[in-house]
Structure prediction request, 729 residues.
Amino acid sequence: MAIVLFTDFGAADLYVGQVHVVLDRYAPGVRVIDLMHDAPAGDVRAAAHLLAALTRQVPRGHVLMAVVDPGVGTDRGAVVMRADGRTFVGPDNGLLSVVAARATTKQLWQIVTHPPDISASFHGRDLFAPMAAAVATDDFPNERVKPVAALAVAFPADDLAEVIYVDHFGNAMTGIRAGSLAREQRLRAGRAEVGYARVFGEAPPGGAFWYENSLGLVEIAVNGASAREVLGLAPGQAVERVA
Amino acid sequence: MAIVLFTDFGAADLYVGQVHVVLDRYAPGVRVIDLMHDAPAGDVRAAAHLLAALTRQVPRGHVLMAVVDPGVGTDRGAVVMRADGRTFVGPDNGLLSVVAARATTKQLWQIVTHPPDISASFHGRDLFAPMAAAVATDDFPNERVKPVAALAVAFPADDLAEVIYVDHFGNAMTGIRAGSLAREQRLRAGRAEVGYARVFGEAPPGGAFWYENSLGLVEIAVNGASAREVLGLAPGQAVERVA
Amino acid sequence: MAIVLFTDFGAADLYVGQVHVVLDRYAPGVRVIDLMHDAPAGDVRAAAHLLAALTRQVPRGHVLMAVVDPGVGTDRGAVVMRADGRTFVGPDNGLLSVVAARATTKQLWQIVTHPPDISASFHGRDLFAPMAAAVATDDFPNERVKPVAALAVAFPADDLAEVIYVDHFGNAMTGIRAGSLAREQRLRAGRAEVGYARVFGEAPPGGAFWYENSLGLVEIAVNGASAREVLGLAPGQAVERVA
Prediction:
């Protein structure tokens, strides 16, 4: 079992290390895996879809601490969720809701007790990391949570027909699961209209296409170049089916 | 106990991994935590204040290897420091001096013996990592150090009224501890003049403010936007109290 | 023993974390070291020279998973290589070939069996990580490989007289081993012509020079500034000896 981190804290910034310090203190000996720290900053909806896709890669039994939390310091809730064998800890702002909506089984708890010395701006370190550590060390903190029936903020289980992430190669992931799309379907995004290719090598050099990426999502790419640069793709852009 | 790294080697660059290889060799089984690798490059004074603020987050007993070292390859000294229960290893160029100046108890040793195959440009890997590993494995290297009374280069314990770091959200940390500042105090930095808000949500959308960040420092931010972009803030800028 | 990762997956991107999840599953308890994840993207030749230089820093016995793989999804081969006591796993596209060409002893196996659920675009996660884990856990997967006499794609052992990497300080590493170069030799790269200095401090402030870096390579730098910015250096540029 491991604690898996999914945040928008920035892989190169000074926040992730502080989370690691806390996890090491409260869950010594538990492996911590940095799944992603450059989730769409502040875009909870896009992050929720990315988290749902990435979750499939994480073995059951693991604890996922997921924090994209533009409302930190307000009265947004905080939750623990068991969904299909994995335990999630994070803000109740919709981030966990796509996972929840697609799960076969789930249980939810609201976090009701906050640590006394909690900061107003870094709940990743002060609230969620200690909670993830408690859960990961089989010390389920019953006294700090209460069962609830549903999340306070919930997005639907449906695909999100938008660019949700652009990787450092310039490939643009969408929130559309590729299994739902016929291979003949052409897509429009930004100034691009693209057809399907199975792999990069099936497109001509410099040619744009969509394919099923390694997370099972529709991704728009250019063979040998950056779709971000060539096609002007960016997170948040709508992706439309060409009739 | 863990070895905690604070450097300007760049989280995405090829230096940190080499340090990890060395630590794994000389301190196998000891957890290594990457606290920060994008400390202000070459700005020892700003880095010293950031280190002092971050140190509060690190449990006593841990070993901190701190390297911001523009003078590597010159005759600047190298030190081991025990301060308030934590052990620091790094260059004697002022980097550890703010921690030292604020510590209740401290002991200092100069590193006098260098490994035979040391490079001229990467003491993080060749000098400080083996030393941190030795200290962390309770094998205090008495034969490689000698006690000294004081650091060769020392900055004062006082706050630094400058922007010392801008995070990837664009928030600008200063070297001013928030406890020293009345909440009514207005501040000027770059083209901004800002008042206090407790949390982001207390400022109007797009509004600039200062607040006490999760390290206890005064930080200048804009609600829902980047203070770097909106206010033109950058490391090194002076922060003034508005009379 | 550790698994050491050398890839172009991007330290800040979402690929490295997925590799860690797989390694944790198949090689639990084995330390994983992120040596470098911003190897020259898609530039296999430059990456091969960088890998050869970095390999010297990795203790014998370690397993290196090396993936710079622009041809993923095509029919390029995949290999396991034992060279001078280290085991490498990666694509057979030249990436391991400089290490191979310089090794005293080596053994090669082609990977012939692919996991059933392998993706077309992320062999780092689906093919190489499980193989690296198998090798690292002393469970050499004889049934998945067959011995071969040579790599399918091989670059020569010679130095590469090009800029192969520019670090975040702006220093430009070349593929030239410094031991092969007389200290009197002047070099030309981009708009720079530079002489030798032992350390940064030997050059005047703002002065450009070449020196032997901590990997034993010729590196072009500017004292107190970025060679990338001042001299316009970038990966791929030729480096010439001035007659």
The longest helix of chain B spans residues 123-136. Chain B touches chain C at residues 10-18, 20-21, 24-25, 28, 41-42, 70-74, 119-122, 125-126 (CB under 8 Å).
